[in-house]
């Protein structure tokens, strides 16, 4: 992370979103929306005096998924890059009611800017990498049998990561969110939302088998006299050293039970999991202090809208569609736009890094040229025949056609009317616009109506 | 009027998309998968290029069957 | 544009010639309207084969070229270049697929030859309607935009930057790192995620 921040060739724009992309391969224009931070980051030294004195201290920390607390002016987390503070406008007393302003008075760098506004910046780039990542499936909305999120001690794997992390809210001590006690029995349920057509997604999220093996290992490792139960459908360990890692978990004493959990309900301070061991064919009941759900990965919020804005497609689950599943796994249907990581589909860290490097190489290849040759077999418009109906515009999958005003001379002098215009850099020469043209104003060079009719006639002789 | 079926050779015109079906026909060739020689393929840049009028033209000129693939 | 088509039929060693009577195809092609020259050769894509095309364009003053050989997905680019080197526009050329879609999928010599003739007739008919096309070029802005500052975005940004190109990395949160920074140790090596 620090390497990214320090690299002279990388300009990092955080707390910002890309809202619009226009143009085509080699020549994109992107609009970046910078959200107001209310702190001048050129001045902020990251000393933390502001957060120390901020009176609004009991906000749920999003980074710790609500397991910890934070102030209204804060860093994402202590090791954030860049290590600067920003104000959560919704919860800042000064920004909501006009009172307070303690941070402004105390900031030694005088970096606080309560009048900070949204800013838009336009950049010109030649290629784009989509690396928008994933969100976790909202199991609370789908799995009633696990309590719809009602039981505080039924948590997601990412919550568990925060609990077990040295930098987390508990300093790496595994504690129950409900009462802070150390759980002696932890149950893991895999495929929550994954491989479940009825309640979740049909696909496998790929990383869960391995991180659950890791979690079970960590329970056995960190908590004395503990039990780790893993409820699974299958154990999938297709990766280098993965099977060995799973075996290590088993050897540490993790108990793997093949079966789905049908119900979780409280009994005293503990939770009861009703299930079945399908290998033995017997119903089963396990008592646990903490239940960890390996929830499915889903495309991150807003990913679909961004794809639409740029002009490429998503698959049935909302992941970005690669141009070819085997031969073009990092390309999209939009030339010059490449995919990296979970935005294309669930994957683990090694696969993500590999795909990101592949996308980078594609772009370096593109940048090794001064100019790009364009295929001349593109659609041309006979403006004199074009009626300006615009039927071709929405049909073009590459957004290459637009209606543009043209000047013409008539009986009563010059006038303006609309006619189709094809951007030959965007046009991929598919010819889908031709059948839509009722006046035969469009023709595809190299595959003209005339040429195809001649071919048909010659073959039918 | 009857057609001698042993002599009759239908004219089948195939419009194949360059990126999939045409490539698939090449693959069939690579694997030497035999099919009747009456099948004649016209390469199109994409099945989206297909104009219904081209299909009608083929029938009008005596094609017995048209396969559109993409 | 004058109608002076040259037709070149490839034997492809025995790949085509063992099933298709290439001489017969060339002879039939000579009868098609617009065709002024037709010949066969053992390997059209080889150096001497391409030389044959280049010379014929000059000697016969060809304006259009049809080459009947393998799939255009294989050698269209090769022959476009040869045609251009011969002195005519690269797009005044059509290719006929008489290997993958003829000799390799049929064994009846007569039927396969008839099919080849029909396909050549189709290409000649098309090439007579071809227009010279020009390849244009567009400039490239050597700067990349990476959307998302998680592990994927950071890795891509670093690799591109290391190659000497400018990168803009946009992240929606106030810190880069993404989900990975929330993780503890990671499998299978159990090293830290940060």
User: What class do helices, strands and sheet pairing of chain A give?
Assistant: alpha/beta
Order of neighbouring strands in the sheet with most strands of chain A: 11-18-12-13-14
- The tally of helices of chain B reads 2
What Rg of chain B is obtained from the alpha carbons, in whole angstroms? Answer: 14 Å
Number of helices of chain A: 11
Poorly predicted ranges of chain A (pLDDT <50, ≥5 residues)?
none
- Report the β-strand fraction of chain A as a percent range: 25-35%
The CATH homologous superfamily of the largest domain in chain A: FAD/NAD(P)-binding domain
Share in β-strands of chain B: 15-25%
Order of helices and strands of chain B: EHEHE
Shape type of chain B: flat
3D architecture notes:
- The complex is a heterotrimer of chains A (461), B (70) and C (194).
- With 461 residues, chain A is α/β, with parallel strands linked by helices.
- Chain A has eleven helices and 25 strands.
- In chain A, the strands form nine sheets. Chain A has a five-stranded parallel β-sheet.
- Chain A starts with a helix and ends with a helix.
- The model of chain A has no long low-confidence stretch (mean pLDDT 94).
- With 70 residues, chain B is an alpha/beta fold.
- Chain B has a three-stranded parallel β-sheet with strand order 2-1-3, with helices on both faces.
- With 194 residues, chain C is an alpha/beta fold.
- Chain C folds into two domains: 5-127, 3-Layer(aba) Sandwich (Rossmann fold); 143-192, no CATH class.
- The model of chain C has no long low-confidence stretch (mean pLDDT 95).
- Chains in contact: A-B, A-C, B-C.
- At the A-C interface, helix 1, strand 1, strand 2, strand 3 and strand 8 of A face helix 5, strand 5, strand 6, helix 6 and strand 7 of C.
- Strand 1 of chain A pairs parallel with strand 7 (166-170) of chain C.
Properties at a glance:
heterotrimer; B: 70 residues; alpha/beta; three-stranded parallel beta sheet; 2 helices; 27% helix; C: 194 residues; Rossmann fold; 2 domains; 6 helices; 9 strands
């Amino acid at each position: 992370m620090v390497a990214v921040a320090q690299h002279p060739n990388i300009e990092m724009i955080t707390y910002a979103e890309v809202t619009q992309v226009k143009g085509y391969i080699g020549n994109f224009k992107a609009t970046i929306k910078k959200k107001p931070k209310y702190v001048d980051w050129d001045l902020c030294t990251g000393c933390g005096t502001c957060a120390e004195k901020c009176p609004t201290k009991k906000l749920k920390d999003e980074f710790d998924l609500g397991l910890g607390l934070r102030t209204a002016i804060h860093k994402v987390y202590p090791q954030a890059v860049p290590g600067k503070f920003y104000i959560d406008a919704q919860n800042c007393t000064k920004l909501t009611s006009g009172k307070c302003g303690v941070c402004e008075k105390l900031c030694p760098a005088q970096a606080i800017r309560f009048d900070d506004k949204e800013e838009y910046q336009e950049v010109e780039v030649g290629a784009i990498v989509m690396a928008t990542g994933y969100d976790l499936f909202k199991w609370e909305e789908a799995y009633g049998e696990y309590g719809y999120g009602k039981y505080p001690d039924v948590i997601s794997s990412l919550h568990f990561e925060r609990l077990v992390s040295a930098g987390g809210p508990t300093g790496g001590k595994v504690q129950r969110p409900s009462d802070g006690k150390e759980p002696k029995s932890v149950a893991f349920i895999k495929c929550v939302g994954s491989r479940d057509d009825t309640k979740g997604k049909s696909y496998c999220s790929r990383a869960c088998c391995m991180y659950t093996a890791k979690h079970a290992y960590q329970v056995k490792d960190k908590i004395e006299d503990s039990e780790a139960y893993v409820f699974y459908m299958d154990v999938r360990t297709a990766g280098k050293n993965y099977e060995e890692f799973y075996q290590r978990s088993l050897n540490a004493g993790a108990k793997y039970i093949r079966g789905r959990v049908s119900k979780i309900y409280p009994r005293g301070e503990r939770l009861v999991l009703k299930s079945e061991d399908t290998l033995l064919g017997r119903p089963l009941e396990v008592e646990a202090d903490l239940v960890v759900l390996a929830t499915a990965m889903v495309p991150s919020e807003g990913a679909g809208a961004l794809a639409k804005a740029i002009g490429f497609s998503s698959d049935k689950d909302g992941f970005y569609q690669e141009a070819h599943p085997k031969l073009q796994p990092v390309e999209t249907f939009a030339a010059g736009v490449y995919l990296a990581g979970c935005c294309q589909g669930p994957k683990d860290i090694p696969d993500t890094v590999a795909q990101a490097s592949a996308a980078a190489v594609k772009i370096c290849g593109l940048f090794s040229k001064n100019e790009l040759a364009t295929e001349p077999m593109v659609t041309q418009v006979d403006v004199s025949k074009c009626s300006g109906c615009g039927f071709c515009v929405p049909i073009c999958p590459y957004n290459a056609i637009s209606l543009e005003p043209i000047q013409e001379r008539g009986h009563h002098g010059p006038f303006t009317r609309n006619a189709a215009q094809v951007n030959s850099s965007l046009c991929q020469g598919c010819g889908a616009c031709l059948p839509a043209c009722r006046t035969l104003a469009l023709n595809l060079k190299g595959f003209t109506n005339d040429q195809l009719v001649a071919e048909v006639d010659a073959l039918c002789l | 009027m009857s057609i001698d079926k042993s002599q009759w050779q239908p004219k089948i015109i195939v419009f194949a998309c360059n990126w999939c079906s045409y490539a698939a026909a090449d693959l069939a060739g690579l694997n030497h998968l035999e099919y009747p020689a009456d099948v004649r393929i016209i390469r199109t840049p994409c099945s989206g290029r297909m104009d219904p009028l081209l299909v009608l033209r083929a029938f009008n000129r005596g094609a017995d069957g048209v396969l559109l693939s993409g | 544009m004058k109608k002076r088509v040259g037709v070149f039929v490839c034997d492809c060693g025995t790949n085509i010639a063992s099933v298709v009577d290439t001489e017969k195809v060339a002879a039939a092609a000579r009868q098609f309207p617009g065709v002024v020259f037709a010949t066969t050769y053992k390997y059209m894509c080889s150096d001497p084969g391409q030389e044959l095309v280049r010379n014929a364009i000059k000697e016969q003053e060809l304006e259009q070229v049809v080459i009947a050989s393998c799939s255009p997905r294989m050698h269209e680019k090769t022959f476009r270049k040869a045609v251009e080197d011969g002195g005519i526009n690269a797009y005044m050329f059509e290719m006929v697929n008489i290997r993958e879609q003829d000799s390799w999928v049929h064994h009846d010599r007569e039927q396969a030859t008839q099919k080849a003739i029909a396909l050549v007739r189709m290409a000649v008919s098309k090439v007579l309607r071809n227009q010279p096309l020009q390849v244009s070029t567009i400039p490239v802005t050597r700067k990349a935009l990476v959307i998302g500052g998680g592990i994927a975005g950071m890795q891509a940004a670093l690799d591109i930057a290391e190659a000497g190109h400018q990168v803009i990395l946009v992240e929606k949160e106030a810190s880069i790192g993404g989900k990975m920074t929330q993780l503890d140790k990671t499998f299978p090596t159990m090293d830290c995620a940060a």
